[in-house]
Amino acid sequence: MTLREAIDARHSVRQYKDKPIEPEKIAALREKAAELNAQGGLHFQIVTDEPKAFSGPLAHYGHFTNVKNYIACVGKKGKDLGETIGYYGEYLVLFAQQLGLNTCWVALTASKRKAAAEIGKGEKMPLLIALGYGETNGHDRKTKTAAQVGGGEDQPDWYKAGIAAALKAPTATNQQKFLFSRNGDFVSVQPTGGFYSDVDLGIVKCHFELGAGKETFSWR
Ligand SMILES: Cc1cc2nc3c(=O)[nH]c(=O)nc-3n(C[C@H](O)[C@H](O)[C@H](O)COP(=O)(O)O)c2cc1C
To answer: Ligand 1 atom 20: the closest Cα is on which residue?
Structure first.
């Protein structure tokens, strides 16, 4: 499965099977996390067989069941942390999808306090990503149109493909609060409000790059 195919296959999954992730897949995830940590200056950690963060009332309220594995999204405090976690974390999410695993970004409906993560001095952990074999592969959801987020029929194919991939990106409460614009081969995207919109922005940029092709354009 290519990363573009992983974008199409991915949906948030909140109910998991009681099936452990195979050691070779955990090793592959840790290797990918280490690679992305080096690129982004982050401290992603793959936590396995630790049900506590997803056992309390918050996880119950969020309809999570059987979450025993997750990615702890940790990094140095700073104004870019949310966007950086979103961007590199989504690469990890899509890699998990390639391994046949399901995921869900979680900002609020888990007990981050109970997460078995190492959070160093000067670091913070704004999110977790639930991980495992889903009861299902999730489902399609409502989406804005390309025109609502800065796309359009008169645009070049690479830009249309980027927007289509961006519309498949997970965003907090499916808010999709972002707006793209293009000037020649230069593309920019701005958040239009909403909570965790910095994380959303990083995720959306990851999807746009994969849809449009990284070499086709430059961010402005
Ligand atoms: C930054 C961020 C935070 C999120 N926080 C939560 C959360 O606390 N609880 C939850 O159940 N889902 C959470 N989600 C998942 C979104 O609800 C989900 O991505 C969105 O509804 C779109 O659905 P999809 O991922 O299937 O495309 C979050 C997603 C993002 C990107």
So the answer is: 174
Ligand 1 pocket, 106 CB below 6 A?
Answer: yes
- Rounded to 5°, angle at Cα 71 from 61 and 104: 45
Is the CB of 81 within 6 Å of ligand 1?
Answer: no
Percentage of the chain lying above the pLDDT 90 cut? 100
Split into its structural domains, the chain has a count of 2
Does residue 181 line the site of ligand 1, with CB under 6 A? Answer: no
| Dist CA 119 CA 117 (whole Å) | 6
Tell me, yes or no, whether 19 and 107 share the same domain: yes
In whole angstroms, give the CA distance from residue 193 to residue 49: 36
Pocket test for ligand 1, best of 15, 60, 104 (most atoms within 8 A of CB): 104
Shared domain for 96 and 40, answered yes or no, is yes
**Same domain flag for 128 and 151:** no
Per residue in 12-59, pLDDT (tens digit) is 999 999 999 999 999 999 999 999 999 999 999 999 999 999 999 999
Look up the domain containing 8 and give its range: 3-132
